[in-house]
Design goal:
The protein is α/β, with parallel strands linked by helices. The protein is built from 15 helices and 14 strands. The chain binds glutamic acid.
């Protein structure tokens, strides 16, 4: 099933739970605008390369469109539309005065040199700016899969050259030197951690952090910071993976700095110990780790499974093999709707993406506020505010869940986000 179909089914579920009319479903089932452009840029060898670029603006009833830009070979219009729609709901779940959007460029950035990446980033942002897509009060992008603060810097610089004045708030997730916010780089993980901690405290009041074993799928920005944060808080991170494979730490607790070292030295976690199928058993035993496949990590007997990579990793075929009673979605859309139903029927709790990873956009919002007021907040202030936003959202979500007879957390999150967006649309006379 395509991601957007998946999104529509989730939306339908939420509409049915609260007994809304079809007009409510229709209001959120199509984006307000779609910008599509063929982006051309020069390769280092002087030839031209052209790739497809998108920006989908889903809903702006609550404020300007907000959401990241991803560079990925699979970033097609269906995926970008889905992610833009999820952004509208996500911003509403954490009650930010923002709408939802998402950008995508269909390219593998790993095939590009640094200067090619810069030319592509600038060309994409120029095309969008000239088409009137982006703007500090209109549509504010941020990083997503395979884009980072450097890409945001080029895009902001391109924008400022076009408009002729400084406007750092046109994009978030920038480096600190260019108006980024303290705490933004790890905000997705920090926000997810605040929610998980709260959930575990409520569900298992007699347990302490050291009683929870956690496996983290994905060791990019979100997964790596999450492992760090959970470890420092006393939880046991027992295994992590990246796209090439996983490592399990014997003694039931990974030393996080070592994981970073493995990744750096071996190019991937597994690459540090194995060359193809040949693995260095002695090195693994000295380091007290075992290599595993990604599937094995997903199917581990742990207390919490954190999904921090791409979408669709838990699907119809592997959902019945998941053993963790709690799954935290730090990535966007990592569980398909078929898998959702299987996990739900097995009483596995899913803490859904539009709540679990909303810390990123929340601190993006803080960055935008700082940029627009010319203020700079201390890291502690950022994190205190983030904690409050996340806790309030979780409280609101549990209230919805109670109201609708124990609907899943995902459906409750959809209901919460939808209700907020629809009420803004109504007030505007658009519904
Ligand atoms: N790409 C992130 C997300 O999916 C962050 C978006 C933002 O900061 O605007 O939530």
């Amino acid at each position: 099933m395509k991601p957007f179909e998946n999104f529509l089914l989730n939306l339908r579920k939420a509409v049915n739970v609260i007994g809304l009319k079809d007009s409510a479903f229709e209001a959120l089932s199509e984006p307000e605008n779609i910008f599509e452009s063929e982006i051309s840029f020069k390769k280092d060898d002087g030839s031209d390369m052209t790739v497809s670029g998108y920006r989908v603006q889903h809903n702006s009833a609550r404020g300007p469109y907000k959401g990241g830009i991803r560079f990925h070979p699979d970033a097609d219009i269906d995926e970008v539309k889905t992610l833009a729609s999820l952004m509208s709901l996500k911003c509403a779940v954490v009650n930010l005065p923002l709408g939802g959007g998402k950008g995508g460029v269909q390219v593998n950035p790993k095939d590009l040199s640094e200067s090619e990446l810069e030319r592509l980033s600038r060309a994409y942002f120029r095309a969008g700016t000239e088409a009137g897509v982006f703007g500090v009060k209109k549509d504010i992008p941020a990083p997503d899969v395979y884009t980072n603060p450097q890409v945001m810097s080029w895009m902001m610089d391109e924008y400022e050259q076009i408009v002729g004045y400084k406007e750092p708030g046109v994009i978030t997730g920038k480096p600190l030197e260019l108006g980024g916010s303290l705490g933004r780089n790890y905000a997705t993980s920090q926000g997810g951690f605040f929610i998980l901690e709260e959930y575990l405290k409520q569900q298992y009041p007699d347990k302490s952090p050291k009683d929870f074993r956690i496996a983290v799928q994905g060791f990019g920005n979100a997964g790596a910071y999450f492992a760090d944060i959970a470890d420092r808080a006393g939880y046991k991170v027992v295994a992590v993976s990246d796209s090439k494979g996983a490592v399990f730490c014997e003694g039931d607790q990974c030393e996080i700095p070592k994981l970073h070292k493995y990744k750096k030295e071996g190019g991937s976690l597994r690459g540090n110990f194995c060359d193809g199928d040949a693995c260095d058993i002695e090195k693994m035993s000295t380091e007290k780790v075992k290599v595993m496949t990604n599937d094995e990590l997903l199917e581990m007997e742990v207390d919490v499974l954190v999904l921090a990579a791409l979408d669709g990793v838990i699907h119809q075929e592997n959902a019945d093999k998941i053993k963790a009673p709690v799954v935290l979605e730090l990535a966007n859309g990592p569980i398909t709707i078929e898998a959702d139903e299987i996990l739900e029927s097995r009483d596995i709790t899913i803490i859904p993406d539009i709540l679990a990873n909303a810390g990123g956009v929340t601190v993006s919002y803080f960055e935008w506020v700082q940029n627009r007021s010319g203020d700079v907040w201390e890291e502690e202030v950022v994190n205190q505010k983030l904690k409050k936003v996340m806790h309030h959202a979780f409280r609101d979500l549990l209230q919805i869940q109670g109201q609708y007879n124990g609907a899943s957390l995902r459906t409750s999150a959809f209901v919460l986000g939808m209700q907020r967006i629809l009420s803004a649309m109504k007030l505007r006379g658009r519904l």
